[in-house]
Structure prediction request, 660 residues.
Amino acid sequence: MSCVCVDAMGGDEKPEVVLEGIAEALAADPELTVLVAGNEDVVVPFCAKHERARALVTTEVIGMGEHPTEAVRSKKDSSIVRGLMAVRKGEADGFFSAGSTGAIFAAASLSVGRIRGVKRACIATSIPGSTGRPSVFLDMGANADVRPEMLVQFAQMGRAYSRVVVGVDDPKVALLSNGAEDTKGSAAVVEAHQALAALDADWFCGNCEGSDLLAGRFDVIVTDGFTGNVALKAMEGTAKFVLGAIKKAVGSSKRAAAGAMMLKPTLKGLAHELMGEEYGGAVLLGLKAPVLIGHGATSVEAVKNGTLSCKRALDSQLVDKIAAEVAQAK
Amino acid sequence: MSCVCVDAMGGDEKPEVVLEGIAEALAADPELTVLVAGNEDVVVPFCAKHERARALVTTEVIGMGEHPTEAVRSKKDSSIVRGLMAVRKGEADGFFSAGSTGAIFAAASLSVGRIRGVKRACIATSIPGSTGRPSVFLDMGANADVRPEMLVQFAQMGRAYSRVVVGVDDPKVALLSNGAEDTKGSAAVVEAHQALAALDADWFCGNCEGSDLLAGRFDVIVTDGFTGNVALKAMEGTAKFVLGAIKKAVGSSKRAAAGAMMLKPTLKGLAHELMGEEYGGAVLLGLKAPVLIGHGATSVEAVKNGTLSCKRALDSQLVDKIAAEVAQAK
Prediction:
C-alpha cells in the first residue's frame, strides 16, 4: 500500500472536480491510499465516505497567481505546504496537485529535499511528437542558470523517469541547442555535450534543435529552465496563433468558415495537446519523493491520472532508480 | 546614389530568380545601383543589359549546408566573401544575399567590421504578430552566450532598426524571459533588465514570455542567440506540427478532408508566415554597413524587397543611427 497526498484545493477548478478524480483513482487501484489535503468542509465529508482516504485539514490556499516563494513562506497552513510536509514526515509517500507549479516546486525543495548527489531538482513535462512518440522535456522552468553537470543530471533523471514511469525500454536522450553540430551551443551546453558523449552511452543522441521538439524523434529532451520555459510558451503561443488565424479566416470567407466547422474536432484536439491541457502535467525530478503537478485547468480524468501516475512512480521506485542513475554516472 | 552589392549565387533557387529580383529592384528605384557578385556566366550578361548594374566576377559558391566559418576561410573567391570585401573597400555601400546566414555573418564580421562601441553584432528578423503588428526579434543565433550589456545594445540596435527601416515611430521593446516579473530570468537577463530599466525610457516594456512572441504586443523583442534560435525553430516546428496534424486528419475522415480543402488558402498563408518564408529574412545589426539576408527558399519578390530594404537602410542612415543610439546610452 502506498499513500499519495492529493491537494484538494489546487487548480482553477472547484475542489469537487479534484475529489471526483481522487474517488476514481481509488476505485481504479485497490492498493492506493490517499491523504486528502484541504479545507475542512471539503476534505472531511469526502474522507468519511471513502475508506482508503484520510483527511489533512488545512486552512489556507495558495492561488495560481501568487508569488511562489512568498506564498510558501507566508501560507504555512496551505494545502501545498502542509501536504508536502506530510510527505517529509512519512505520513504520505508522494504528492499530487493541480496547483501552482512554482509554489509546489518551492515548497517541495524545502520540505521533501533532494536525493543525495543531485545538484538541482528540476521540472519535467511531456510534449507530443508528430510520430506519435511523446518526449519528456526538462527543465521546464526551475533552473534559469545551469552548470554543465546539472544538464548531465537532468539527462540521467529524465531517462530514469522515461523508463520507469513512461515505460520506454531504453530511452534516447538529446540535448537542446542552437544547432545539431557537437560544437554548437552556449558554453554550458557545449560542455554538457562533451560530458554526455564521454559517458559513451548508446542513449545519448547528441544535440537537437527547436524544430525537433515536436518531431517525436527522442524520448527525452534536455535543456535549462530558461530555454525550456521560453520554448514551451513559444510552442503554446504558436499553436494559439495558428488556431487564431484559422478562426479569423472563418470570419472573412464562407468557404473557410465551412472548412473550419468541419475541422473543428481536429482543431480542438490539437488545442488540447499543444495549449497545456495535455502536456501541462509536470513532475519534479531529483527529490526524495515523487511530486507530480497537474495542469491548472484540470479535470476529473487529469486528477485520476495524476494520482495514479504518482502511485506508479512509487510502485516502480522512481526515486531509487534516479538515485542509482545519478550515483552510477559520477 | 547608393550601391547595394547583391549575391547572385545565394539561396536554394537558380541565379535567374535572383537576377530577376535585382532587375525589378532597379526598375522600382532609379536611385539604386547594384554590384552583382557571382559566376561570370551569370553576372556578366546581366550587367551588360542593365545600366545601373556592375559585375563582380567570382569563382566560388558557399552552399547552404556548409560549415560557416570553414567555408568563409577556405572559399576566398566566393560571392559572399568577395561581395562583403567589396563593401569593406567602399565599392558598394550595403550587401544583400539569400545565402547561408552563418557564412554571411562570419564573413561580414571579418570584413565589414563592427561600429565603434558595439560589443557584438547580432542577427535580427521579423516575426508576425496576431494583432497584425510584426516584431523585430533579435538575436536569432549569432551569440549563444551574452553578457547583460550586450542584451542592452541589442535592444538599442533593434529599436533603431525598427524606427529607421520598419518605420515605427517610437518602438516598444521587451526582454524575453521565463516570466513577466522583473526578477525572473537567467542572471544575465535579470541584470540586463535592471540596466534597461535604469535608462528610464518609455520604450522599455520589461520582460515578456515565449507566449508573447507572436502576440504582436511589442515592436522589438530581445534575447540571446541561443534562446532566439531555439524559440524561432520551436515556432517553426509547432506550425509544422499543427499543419501536419490537420493533414493527417484529412486522411482519417471525409469531413475533415473537406474542411481542410476549404481552408487550404488560409493554411498555406500561415505556413508561409510561420515556416520561414516570411520571417526568414534577416538583418545583421552592429556592423559598419547594412547587411541583409533573404530566406534561402527565395523568390523574385523577396530579392527585390531585400535589395530595396538594403537601399532604404542606406538612405535612412541606419548605421549612423545605431552608432548614435549606442553612444548615447553608454
Notes: DSSP finds eleven helices and eleven strands in chain B.
